[in-house]
Write a structure and sequence with these properties.
By secondary structure, the chain is mainly α. It contains two helices and no strands. The protein has helices spanning 27-32, 50-59. The relative contact order is 0.06.
Length: 66
């Protein structure tokens, strides 16, 4: 009898993402790209090493706002 019962699954069901959906995962990345401008003094690896830069900023005695 138990073999005929439907099984419950918690696996996600793949659904296509709408590229114009601003709530989709990663949507904010489109907004962030270029948000700091093209100032040549900005490090080119800022995105990859932002934690290292923040740590150095704090060690130098600066406080972050907020």
């Amino acid at each position: 009898e138990a073999m005929n019962e439907p099984r419950l699954s918690r696996e996600p069901v793949p659904t296509p993402l709408d590229p114009d959906d601003k709530t989709r995962p990663g949507a904010s990345l489109d907004i962030l790209i270029g948000a700091l401008g093209d100032d040549p003094s900005l490090p080119t690896d800022l995105a990859a090493r932002h934690d290292d830069y923040l740590r150095a900023f704090r060690v130098a005695g600066y406080r972050l706002l907020g």
